[in-house]
Design brief:
- The complex is a heterodimer of chains A (about 110) and B (about 120).
- With about 110 residues, chain A is an all-beta fold.
- In chain A, about 0% of the residues lie in helices and about 55% in strands.
- Chain A has a single domain, classed as Immunoglobulin-like (Sandwich), CATH 2.60.40.10.
- Chain A is globular and about 40 Å long.
- Chain B has one domain: Sandwich (Immunoglobulin-like).
- Chain B has strands at about 5, 10-15, 20-25, 30-35, 45-50, 55, 70, 75-80, 90-95, 105, 110-115.
- In chain B, the strands form two sheets. In chain B, strands 2, 4, 5, 6, 9, 10 and 11 form a seven-stranded mixed β-sheet that branches. Chain B has a four-stranded antiparallel β-sheet with strand order 1-3-8-7, with no helix packed on it.
- The radius of gyration of chain B is 13 Å and the shape is globular.
- The chains are: A mainly beta (about 110), B mainly beta (about 120).
- The interface of A and B includes residues 46 and 104 of A.
Chain lengths: ~110, ~120
């Protein structure tokens, strides 16, 4: 069975510093992985996805994630945080039944 | 990607009543889904809305409580029936177009429901 674990429920950074949101997955085969962002009172927006092509995936708003099979990880990074990055971030794996399995979310706070 | 709208965007309802949420897409899509996001929680899939046939419900969700319609390839409704405060959640629809991108779901803005 597939599952995804977001290792931090909350992450706080200062504006201009790097962001790291950690995600580990479990899958019996090569998975499809996604990061979505949910700003306050908004729906979910796709940040980026990995579907067995390049292991380093670039997304919108300067975010990127690296698929590491040996570590079963798909961590989300950004070199320099902006105030507008404050939101809830969800790591998602597509299961073998083609259903999306969501992590519990990481709330990112950005301080000036 | 498809543009997805939901109506209403939010509502406050009395227990025992029902609310129907609409999801409209600006293009024909293969798959439509309904999710629930309870306060402070992640998303849980309620059901897959099948065009022209009964929806496929996940474990823990039943048709009597969450009837779903999908009359065509651009529109679906979710009804939350006989509501109780425990139904207070954000309800989101999502779409997937297998012809364009077999892997990605796009989400609507959500309907924020508060049941008193």
């Amino acid at each position: 069975a597939q599952s995804v674990t977001q290792l931090d429920s909350h992450v706080s950074v200062s504006e201009g510093t790097p962001v790291l949101l950690r995600c580990n997955y479990s899958s019996s085969y090569s998975p499809s992985l996604f990061w979505y962002v949910q700003h306050p009172n908004k729906g979910l927006q796709l940040l980026l996805k990995y579907t067995s092509a390049a292991t380093l995936v670039k997304g919108i708003n300067g975010f990127e994630a690296e698929f590491k099979k040996s570590e079963t990880s798909f961590h989300l990074t950004k070199p320099s945080a902006h105030m507008s990055d404050a939101a809830e971030y969800f790591c998602v794996v597509r299961g073998n039944t083609d259903k999306l399995i969501f992590g519990t979310g990481t709330r990112l706070q950005v301080f000036p | 990607s498809a543009v997805i709208s939901q109506k209403p965007s939010r509502d406050i309802c009395q227990r025992g009543t029902s609310l129907t949420i609409q999801c409209q897409v600006d293009s024909q899509v293969t798959m439509m889904f309904w999710y629930r996001q309870q306060p402070g929680q992640s998303l849980t899939l309620i059901a897959t809305a099948n065009q022209g046939s009964e929806a496929t419900y996940e474990s823990g969700f039943v048709i009597d409580k969450f009837p779903i319609s999908r009359p065509n390839l651009t529109f679906s409704t979710l009804t939350v029936s006989n509501m109780s405060p425990e139904d207070s959640s954000i309800y989101l629809c999502s779409v997937e177009d297998l012809a364009e991108d077999q892997e990605t779901q796009y989400f609507g803005p959500g309907t924020r429901l508060l049941v008193l």
